[in-house]
Amino acid sequence: MHDEMVLSGARLVLAGEVVRGSMVLRQGRIAAIDAGPVGRSAAIDLGGDYLLPGLVELHTDNHERHAMPRPGVQLPVWSAVQAHDAEIAAAGITTVFDAIGVGDPYQRGFRGRDQSEMLAVLDALDEAGVLRADHRLHLRCELPADNALELFAPYDDHHRLGLLSLMDHTPGQRQWSDLRRARAYFIHKKGWSAQQFDQELERSAHPDAQRLARIESNRAAFVAAARRRGLALASHDDTTPAHVDEARALGVTISEFPTTLQAAGHARAAGLLTVGGAPNLLRGHSHAGNVSVAELVAAGQLDILSSDYVPGSLLAAVWMLAREDAAAPADPRRLPHAVATASRAPARAVGLDDRGEIAPGLRADLVRVREVAGRPVVLGVWRGGRRVG
Questions:
Q1: Structural domain boundaries of the chain?
Q2: How far apart are CA 23 and CA 266, in angstroms?
């Protein structure tokens, strides 16, 4: 990487406006922004394409999809991490919080196993200078699981850990409050029998003392870990105002994927940042029957977009927010705010003040985007001034 690089002839998506101009990158940072072209022969002409800040992803299960592409089929961690990293960068994501599940209440799934081998793989690839994205970790802490703390231990003091979320994915709870959809999911995707679903639903609805004690002890331990490390803490699938109040009392600052408009509104009123799924926005509805992200947007209740399980959905959803209608190109007046939901807002939510927008002094994490038929196409990605995609 050269100490200095000039990108010229771009539509720069700044914090509050889109301007045609040029940018000087120096030693991995944005050194200067100039309106109009820069008269340097070495400048890279972007030909009027958009230049966005690198996207920041707080919650993606994409690594899990590469590690276990089919039920019961697990690939080597080295292969999974590299494939995940390449896909993330190709989507314009320069900072990613890999969401790793710790704990499975039923001891059958991928999240019930030790996945910490990926730590050594990420560090080795990073040391070799071949990671495309900046990989951080988001540990998804399954409160009812009796092995959650055991699986958490290898990550506790690792330098990549930046976010914890508190979850309960048992039937009848939060995301799976819609029992018809829950039954279909657990039977058809998880392979449960109808009898097993009914039994687990009863256990979840009327937990015994041991289960309640485990949930409370796990919650206390994870909250203490977040406070000790100064980590951001998120709640997951808040469904009722009571869920939000409980989260706020614990020190939670992010409400991930609230499942109802009521919960999302209560979260924002309580000062929590709300996260919505980009696949939900693109599809127009939730796969689990929860509130649509379009409803959150219309009600002014969305702060952050997440690609969730489809990396390429993040930029597409940003463009959807920036369009007046489905057939229109991005509106330059709407684009800065739309981009911020996938860059500045998530970065600030987890304490990253050195990225997420195009401004002098910040990291040169950038995405070149060309609009084709009103849709965004990634043509180039830089992280810390280095071309990675």
A1: 55-167+206-356
A2: 41
Residue type at position 290: N
Percent of the chain past pLDDT 90, that is, above it, reads 75
Residue with tokens 């803490």: 233
Q: Please check whether residue 158 is in contact with residue 139, taking contact to mean a CB–CB distance below 8 angstroms.
A: no
Tokens at 68, concatenated: 């276990």
C-alpha closest to that of 145 among 175, 166, 115, 116: 166
Q: Which residues contact 102 (CB under 8 A, 6 or more apart)?
A: 111, 139, 140, 141, 142, 145, 148, 151, 152, 155
Assigned architecture for domain 55-167+206-356: Alpha-Beta Barrel (3.20)
Residue found by looking up tokens 């939900």 in the block:
280
Contact 257, 235 (CB under 8 A): no
Residue 28: count of CB within 10 angstroms of its CB: 17
Cβ atoms within 10 Å, residue 187: 14
pTM: 0.90
* 89-116 pLDDT, tens digit each: 999 999 999 999 998 877 667 777 899 9
Report how far residue 110's alpha carbon sits from residue 101's, in angstroms, rounded to the nearest whole number: 8
Closest of 186, 198, 188 to residue 104, by C-alpha: 186
CA pair distance 332, 335, nearest whole angstrom = 5
Distances in whole angstroms, Cα of residue 311 to Cα of each of 9, 69, 85, 330, 364: 28, 15, 10, 20, 21
> Nearest to residue 321, comparing CAs of 357, 282, 287?
282
Consecutive H or E run containing 8: strand 4-13
